[in-house]
Each structure stands twice: as structure tokens, then as C-alpha cells.
Amino acid sequence: MASLADIAAQIGGHVVGDASLEIKRVAPIDEAREGDLTFIANPKYVAELETTQASAVIAAPGVESDRVALIVSDNPYLAFARAVEFLHVSRPASLGVMDGAHVHPEATLGEGVTIHPGCVVSAGARVGNGTILHPGVILYSDVEVGENCLLHANVIVREGCRLGDRVIVQPGAVIGSDGFGYAPDGGRYVKIPQVGIVEIGDDVEIGAASCIDRAALGVTRIGRGTKIDNLVQVGHNVVIGEDTILVSQVGIAGSTTIGNHCTFGGQGAAAGHLHIGNNVTIAARGAAAGNIPDGQVMSGAPAMPHKDWLKASMVFPRLPDIRREMQQLRKKVAQLEKQLEENQDP
Amino acid sequence: MASLADIAAQIGGHVVGDASLEIKRVAPIDEAREGDLTFIANPKYVAELETTQASAVIAAPGVESDRVALIVSDNPYLAFARAVEFLHVSRPASLGVMDGAHVHPEATLGEGVTIHPGCVVSAGARVGNGTILHPGVILYSDVEVGENCLLHANVIVREGCRLGDRVIVQPGAVIGSDGFGYAPDGGRYVKIPQVGIVEIGDDVEIGAASCIDRAALGVTRIGRGTKIDNLVQVGHNVVIGEDTILVSQVGIAGSTTIGNHCTFGGQGAAAGHLHIGNNVTIAARGAAAGNIPDGQVMSGAPAMPHKDWLKASMVFPRLPDIRREMQQLRKKVAQLEKQLEENQDP
Amino acid sequence: MASLADIAAQIGGHVVGDASLEIKRVAPIDEAREGDLTFIANPKYVAELETTQASAVIAAPGVESDRVALIVSDNPYLAFARAVEFLHVSRPASLGVMDGAHVHPEATLGEGVTIHPGCVVSAGARVGNGTILHPGVILYSDVEVGENCLLHANVIVREGCRLGDRVIVQPGAVIGSDGFGYAPDGGRYVKIPQVGIVEIGDDVEIGAASCIDRAALGVTRIGRGTKIDNLVQVGHNVVIGEDTILVSQVGIAGSTTIGNHCTFGGQGAAAGHLHIGNNVTIAARGAAAGNIPDGQVMSGAPAMPHKDWLKASMVFPRLPDIRREMQQLRKKVAQLEKQLEENQDP
């Protein structure tokens, strides 16, 4: 519970209307009730201002209402994110090393950490100030986790891997699993020991049950601010830049490099040993099969420019018609040829 | 070990032949030996009655045999399922809170529960009567799990999520991970706190390592009787109806609603913010890219009616032929045009 | 640190150059520095011998250098794998049953095992000599794990499943989850109890968060030497041969059999109840939809011969052109027909 004035001050906006309104929670515009704050990030929803039951709405400059109070912000979606944080998220007090947690005497813990029951922090591991390890988190030896990180239940970080500050890892994610590398020896495969590590930059988030493989030699690297969704596979020696987005179930094969500000849609993929530039978008289910320069928007498998894919995809269901017409044309042309021949040799 | 008469009484059928036969186990028809019970769910396998080594067979009315005893049932496959349950599954006795389990004093446990070593049941969590938590299950604060649920090893249910009765969760599944939502702030992404929950209806099953994201605000909902296979992703604010099937590796993007009695084949998908009706089938690898009304059967990516996709897919490998023929036709038509011109201007 | 002579003796090769050189580590050819050993597995990289900073290089017979020492080997990639093993991997000493591990009194442990904190070894389970269970590994009742296996953190093996010797399982993998089988009962689904097991042969590796379902009845089988990457789904009653490769995010539906020496590329798939022969390759994202005889290389969904798929995929982006040309041809042919008709009836 907070006044609209307090919220506006927190999230960076100014109030138009009754700044003393008490707000209980943030809610979607069509579910909001009295006492709720909602938001309009897209101008096409402005009409909903006429019907919403919310008491207050975050909106862009120029939006007006005589029904509800407004918090005017240049970036309403960002202001909404901050409002949810302010009203709904409370940072829990540090609980230290709880009963049932296993912290090796040669591990190093920062101040204000919380290590829940069932966690294992191995020899040589370091956990930064304010970091929380939920139950069942396993840090192998010599792992480094930065400050104010949040590792959810059953997250595993294997030996020697390093996480920056404010990294969030959802439950069950695996950082530093062995890369998939074998040397053929006759008909059999001999494992190539994977002795590299994973380095994860500040402000990265990694989704539930996602797997980031350690390098064979060297480093698999996830750049600052990159966000990875659930069930994503990142192969060994992959290097991903900053502020890149990998949506759920994406797979990036080994040794591929991806630039900054890229987006891979759900179930997308990149083959191995590719170079993908900055600001590249691979649409959902798209599969990069070759290098891609900066700024391209690609779809399909193998990926092609999105506009080309859209057009070709619209023709695809008509392939049976095209084949049928082709056969008809063939017949007609044969007939014409025959007729012409007859005309010439009467 | 049970007599055929006892089994028939349990599974709902009547015996034709020696009802006193002692049955040891249920087996597939081609692996069954003396003392085994098997089944014929599909009439096309009736000929196997002549060769099976099984002592007894569950079959539909009208099937006859002078070699083996029969249990006649209107739904042989269902009767088979019940026979496996009766002969092979024994509900273990309750073991209470075992050594090495961590149950918070402010958690509430029903009667007859089993909480294995390594489990964590947090403050405010409630576990219903007869529910079993296998080793390493983590219930965050305020989780509610209904009666007679079976949560396998290392399942995680995050804060405030609710499971109905008789819910089965396979090992390593994650319920209530954060949805994937960020507000752009310049070139960076700011996390939108995911403060909603997940609600799972009665008789739902969730597969190993599947992830059901909590809502941003509000509820991600899985309806009664829905069955979800392994490695499936369900995004935030998704609403799935009753008795719907999601086969392995399916991905459902955020805010999509799916009706009752739908089926998504393996590696299928739905984009976000879609409405998919009741009784819709998306074939394996199909990807719903727009709303789909009731009763449709769809394939392909983007999904189209299955029959259209089948026909188009059969033409696809002939695309090089079509292009070649097109070039030949172009040449022939050009020649015909030239000839006609010459004929007209002799 | 070891001399080049010692390394050559270990990995099976002979030294050309200074055999007394002390080698610190193995490194990729473009990152290697003084004191490093690197390798050239592919003759096209021989030119890099002129620029590498490595002190020594593993190479095939016939390669020569006056800049660096060589270890000459018939299989440089395999020799490299062994060199990494020799220089970088040390088998840790056995630690026995550590504090915080839960081993049931009716479990059987071999000699020289290590059972880390948070592990649960249930009644009737057997762990072979020299096997390591990392933290949080859960073995249900009657599981058998062979000798010198390495089960990483939070791996789960459900009741009765059996692993051979030298099996490696990456973190969070699930062996023996229930297969996905239900009998329709009116509009609802009744679970078919999955009472079979999983058997995994010697020298198999299973990737992080991969799921191998137990058989409904009988056995799901993974043959000796087969390597499975991360986030792979193997359905119930699947039988996979020896030395087969499943790359990340592959899904194999129930009851399909796959032969020896096959390869499924990333995100590939096979439908259920198929027979796939020996030496079959399914390219990345390929989906086997029918039986496949020995030795085929297939791509696409549904899978077709790879060469056909390559050609058809190159035509796909030109579909809009093909349709446009088709329309032009249709017009021209109609015009020709009209002209001919006019010529004949002047």
C-alpha cells in the first residue's frame, strides 16, 4: 500500500489527478479493480481508459482521462515494471547459513548471504555479498558467484564457473555441464574432457532447466544483461554478447558467436561455428545455418530474410495447386506445339 | 498374482474361459509367456491370438479364442491400464517426515504424508493427506499441494503456487519459475517482477524437467485432467483447459489460452497471445501462429489445416523438378510466340 | 606439467623435435602460448603451424615444421583428447559416504565410492566400485549403477533402472521417469502405470536435463557407447543401439528402435513406433516420420534424403517467383491459344 505520489516518485513519473490515492496492487487493465494501478504501454489501448475499474493508470505523455488518475511517464512499460517491484517485491532479510546447508570450510561467503537447506557450497567456492542460494543449490569447487545474485532451487554450477553480480538463475538450470565432444576411434567415441569454464556477466538471467555447457578449452561466455528463457541449450565455447535475448527452447550449437542486442525467438536455433552479428533477430523456430551480418531479421530453417520467408510461406500451402496448374500448362503447351506443327505442315 | 476372475472383477470385464487361472503379470502380446495377461486394443491384431504365449488376453466383445482365456471388456485399453495398476502397483505405506527432510514449523502437513530426505517444505506451505514428496522436492513458502499427490525427486514448486488433488509431477519439473518479461530501457532490459502464481487442477500430470512459468500478474492455469509430457515449456499467463495433452518438448508462449481436449504433438508450439479452441489438434512439430477455432487439426509452421499440409509436404521434395519444368515451359512458350509471330509475318 | 616425451608415450605418438620440452597445458591453436600443446586434426589448418605460439603440435604423419615440436599421430584428434585427459584431468580420491548423504541400510556400496552430501541411495540400490555420486543425486529403490560411473549433481534414477560401467550422467538428467501413456475413458484420460525400467549400457553419456522414460512394460534400452546431449527426450520402450549420437534437444517418441552408429542432429526427432537402421544420419531439425533403412542421410520434416532436401530448400525462397512466373505463363499460353484460334478461323 502506497500513495500515488510515492509510487510516481519511485518509478519516475508525475501524477495527473489525485496524488493522495492509496494503491494496493498492480493489475492488468482488464482485471484491475478499485485500489489498483494499471498501465497502458501501447497507445491503441487508450480506449480502455473509458472502461477500466482501476483507480490509476500509468500512461505516456498526451494521454488524458477524467475517470482515473494518471502517472505520466515517458516509458510506461518500464514504469509499470518498477511499480510492480515497488509494491509487490520485498527483499527478504538475510538468513545466513541455514540448518541443513553444507558449506565447505574452504568456501568463502560474503556478508548478508542466505544459504538454504540442502545447498552444497564446495571447497574454493566464493559467494558474494547479499547473494541468496535457494534450497538444493549445488556449487562445485572453485565456483565464483557475485554480489546480490539469486540462485533458485536446485540450480547447479559446476567447477570453476563464474557468475557476475545481480545474476538471476531460475530453478533447475545447469551452468557448466560438459560440452558434447568426442573423438572417433574406429567405430567408437572417446570423450574429449571438457576442461574450460562458463563466465556469466552482470545482470544476466538464466531460465529454468536451461543448460550452459562449459568450454572444451577456454570459456563459454554470456555477456552482461543477456536474458535466457527456460529449457535453452547453449553449447560449449559459445560466446554471446550483451543484452541479447534467447527465448524458450532455443538451441545454440558449439563455438558460435552471437553479438549484442540479438533476439532468438522460441525454439530457434543456430548451427555451430557461426558468426552472428549485432542486432540480429531470428524469429521463432528459425534456424541460422550460416553467418549473419548485423541487423538482419531472419526466419525459417535454414534461416532466410524474414520478408522472403513470409512470402514463401504463404505460397507453400498452394504447392499442390501450382503442381496441378503446371501439369495443365504442360498439356496446353504440348497441344499448341502440335497445332502449330499441323498448321505449318498442312 | 491373482486369479483371472479377481482381475476381471477389478478392471470391469467378464471372463470367457478358465476364470481360476493364476496370472503373474501383464506383458505386451509379443513378449507374454505362460502366466501372463496381455491385451488386444486394436482389432487388426486379433490374428496374434493364434500365436501369443500369454495365458489370457483382454479383448473387445466379439473376439473369440480356443487357445487362451479372455477378459472381455468394452474398452480393452482402459481395462489393460487397470490390470497393470492392480497387478503391478502397490501404494507404499506412509513414512511421515523422514530423517533429513526439512519441514518449516509454520508448514502444515496432512495425514499419511511421506516427506523423503532432502525435501524442503517452507513456511506457510500446505501438503494434503496422503501426498508423497520424493527426495529433494522443494516447496517454497505458501505453496499448496492437494491430497494424494505424487511429487517425484527434485521437483520444485515456487512461492504461492497451488496444486489440486492426485497431481503427479515427474522428476525435476519446475512449477512457478519466473515468466520471461522485460521492459526495454534504452538498449538494456529491466526485469518485470513476476508476482503471479500457477494453479494446477486435479488429476493433472506434469512431465520430467518441464517448466510452468508463474504469471506476471494473476494466474497461469492448467485445467483438471490435463497431461503434460517431459521438457515442455508453458509460458506466463497461459491458460490451458481440461483433458488437454501436451507431448514432449512442446512450447506454449505467454498469455495464450488453449481449450479442453486439445492435443499438441511432440515439439509443437503456440505463439503468444493466441486463442486456441476446444478439441484442436496440433500435429507434431506444428506451430500455431494465429487463433484456431474448435475442432481443427493443424500441421506445419506456421500451422495450416493438416490435409493441406500433407499435400503441400508431398510436393515440397519436387520443388527442383517444378522449377526445371517451369524453365522448360518458359522456353517452349517463348518459342511458340516466336513461331506464331513468324507465321503471321511471313 | 609433463615432458613432450611423456605425453607422446601416453597418447600414442612419436615426437619430432625436442622431446624434453615441458608442456603446461593443452590449448586451441589460435590461443596457444609458449609451453602449450595444441593439435591440427584437419590438414587445411597446416598453415597455422607458421603462426601458432604453441610450443608443440599434435599432427598427422607427413606434417613438418621447423618452428615447433610435433607429436605425430595417426589420429590427431583422438591423441588431443587423450592429451587433455593426461594433462588436465585428475581422478579425485574416494571420499566415501560424506556427511549429509542418506544411504539406506539395505543399499549396497562398492569399494572406493564417493557419495556427496544431499545424495539419497534407497533400499536395494547398488553402487559399483569407484563410482562417484555428486551432491543431490537421488537413486530410488533397487537402482543398479555399475563401476566407475560419474553421476553429476541432482541426477535422478528412478526405481529399478540399471546403468552399466563408466556411465557419465550430466547434472539434472532424469532416468526412469514415467512414459507418457493414458487410456481414454470417455473424455478423460486414465494413466497407464509405467512399470518397466531403463537399461543403460557401458560407456554411455547422458546430457544435462535429458529425460529417459521407463518402459510401460519391459525395457527402454540405451546401447553401449551411445552419447546423448543435453535436453534430449527419449520416450518409453525406445531401443537405441551402440555408438549412436543424439545431439541436444532431440526427441525420440515411444517404441521407436534406432540402430548402431546413427546420428541425430540438434532438435531432430523421430516419431513413435519406427524402425531406424544402422548408420543413419538425421540432420539437425530433421524429423523421421517413417522407417529408415541402413545408411541413409536424411533432412527435413518429414525427413527425406538429405540431397533432395538441400535442393528443395534452395527453391523454397523462390516460391513467390515461381507463382508469379506461373501466372505470366498462364496468360501467355491463353494468348497463344487465342491467337492460334484466330489464325485458324480468319
Question: Compute the gyration radius of chain A: what is it?
Answer: 28 Å
Count of all domains of chain A = 2
Total strands of chain A: the figure is: 40
Report the sheet with the most strands of chain A, covering strand number, pairing sense and barrel closure: 12 strands, mixed
Q: Ranges of chain A with pLDDT <50 over ≥5 residues?
A: none
The greatest inter-chain interface is formed by: B-C, 67 and 66 residues
Going by CATH, the architecture of the largest domain in chain A would be: 3 Solenoid
Shape descriptor of chain A reads: flat
Oligomerization category of the chains in this entry: homotrimer
Q: State the CATH superfamily name of the largest domain in chain A.
A: Hexapeptide repeat proteins
Helix coverage percent of residues of chain A?
10-25%
What structural class do the secondary elements of chain A suggest? Answer: alpha/beta
Distance between the termini of chain A: 98 Å
What CATH calls the topology of the largest domain in chain A is UDP N-Acetylglucosamine Acyltransferase, domain 1
Any idea of the CATH class of the largest domain in chain A? Answer: Mainly Beta
Q: Provide mean pLDDT of chain A, rounded.
A: 95
Please, how many helices of chain A? Answer: 4
Give the neighbour order of strands across the main sheet of chain A.
8-11-14-17-20-25-28-31-34-37-39-40
Pathway (chains A, B, C): Bacterial outer membrane biogenesis; LPS lipid A biosynthesis
Protein name (chains A, B, C): UDP-3-O-acylglucosamine N-acyltransferase
GO biological process, one term (chains A, B, C): lipid A biosynthetic process
GO cellular component, one term (chains A, B, C): membrane
